[in-house]
Amino acid sequence: MRLNNNAYPYLIILGIFLLLVAPNLMSHGMFVDGLTYASIARNLALNGESLWQLHYTNTVGNAFYGHLPLAIWLQSLCFQVFGDSILIERLYGLILYVFTGGVIIGIWKELTGNLSNGWLPLLFWISIPEVSWACQNNVLENTMTLFTGLTMLAYLKYSHSEKTWQLMLCGLFLLCAFWSKGPTALYLLFIPFIFTSKEINWNLKKSVWRSFVLLLFILIPLLLMINFVPEGRRYLSNYYHDQLLCSLSSTQTVAHRFQILIDFTTQIIPAIIIVILSFVFYSKRELLNFIKLEYLYSPSQLFLLTLAGVFPIMISLKQSSFYILSVYPFLAIGFALLTQAIISNTTNTDFARWRRLRYKIIITILILAGGLIWNILQIGKTGRDHDKVELAIEVSAYLQHNQTIGLDPELFEDWALHGYFARYGNISLDPDPHGDYKYILTCTNCSIDNYKNQNLIPVITSSTYILFEKMPNE
């Protein structure tokens, strides 16, 4: 079966993305947040826990209320269907990104009226380093980004037809985005104020009404849950106090509020370089055409929406660069529209040459196969935190799963250690020095004064950690 010529650029983009994520997507080792969510989703799927009683470990997050639960619920379905494997959360993330790429192409079609050069926003999207990093590390923003993209796509379809059901669908997708990560999705309420056709005069009343309708899709389910679902009400109350209030008042992870702007600017440097190169390599006549307002209308809307997603993060001093992951598809489409406007006169010629290339199939296969093979070769290897991963795997194989062991208090705030033990063996680590546990985990550099009077023998020893077994006194 021969592929359509237009399919080759998309396959090449997919191959490049697979190459970008290959070092860590399928290997052992993950960012601690991703470990946490995977462990909670696994517990929910395999231990028969309630949807509203999420559980991490017996000593950390015994009752987890740190985030709204939709992304964890969806991931738990994968564990229910496919069982317990570290590849589950990896494949979940990869599938999310494939679907998100499809949504980006759909938005592109709504904005341009065709699929010509639909690969271009995908190129800008994957050029942002945070995108491939997040795919590898199972953050909740991966799920939220899919739903924010679907929200935009549904609204664009509604703006062309003004069919009520499409606005309602937009509200449902926004609700899903909100329940995936919380208030960071609410910048999409600005869509009705930002997006309108250049052929239609902007109408403030219509924009306010549409935004209010979208807001109702957030508020009504919350009110219904608070009034009629006691478990959901308790979850929301704890989430509000544990996560939202702490984020706004006490938790601080950055030195100043402008850090998110610095992170954002750093992440988009590769995309900006691509845009600059487009300006450099094309003629002055094409640049003069680019200056026309008609070429800047849609990109400016997308850039405004991007900033609407970035600036609210500055409210809190609890910031991480991946908090704004969901704005990058919109930014990528905006950059692609700019670039297409510059090279529109030469694109068809370039692709005519591409179609005549004898080796286009070989080039596509090499890139795509290279990405697939490299990812497959990483299965079973360790990409990061080698000592902790190997220790967790070895101890989980030695001990029975679903138990609690002692932990040297000096190691308690090593959150990745908790994460790996939870993920590989559902083993909880308790730093209570008075806990009566048969096994105690410590490290080679930790003080051993606490264990001088105990009858302990080393069971497992790594270069960094030691697992002691407490023997009965004779």
Describe this structure in words.
The structure is a single chain. By secondary structure, the protein is mainly α. Strand 4 and strand 5 (465-470) form a beta hairpin. The N and C termini lie far apart (76 Å). Strands 2-1-3-5-4 form a five-stranded mixed sheet, with helices on one face. The chain has helices spanning 7-21, 32-46, 70-82, 87-112, 119-126, 129-137, 141-161, 164-181, 191-194, 204-228, 230-249, 259-267, 269-281, 284-290, 293-310, 328-356, 360-377, 386-398, 415-425, and strands at residues 404-407, 428-430, 439-443, 456-461, 465-470. Helix 2 packs across helix 3. It folds into two domains: 7-377, no CATH class; 386-470, no CATH class.
Number of domains: 2
Class derived from helix and strand content: mainly alpha
- What pattern of helices and strands is seen along the backbone? HHHHHHHHHHHHHHHHHHEHEEEE
Strand neighbour order, sheet with most strands: 2-1-3-5-4
Main sheet: strands, sense, barrel: 5 strands, mixed
Straight-line distance between termini: 76 Å
Total count of strands: 5
Oligomeric state: single chain
Q: List low-pLDDT spans.
A: none
Number of helices: 19
Helix content: 55-70%
Spatial extent as radius of gyration: 25 Å
Q: Which descriptor suits the 3D outline?
A: globular
The residue-averaged pLDDT reads 89
Strand coverage percent: 5-15%
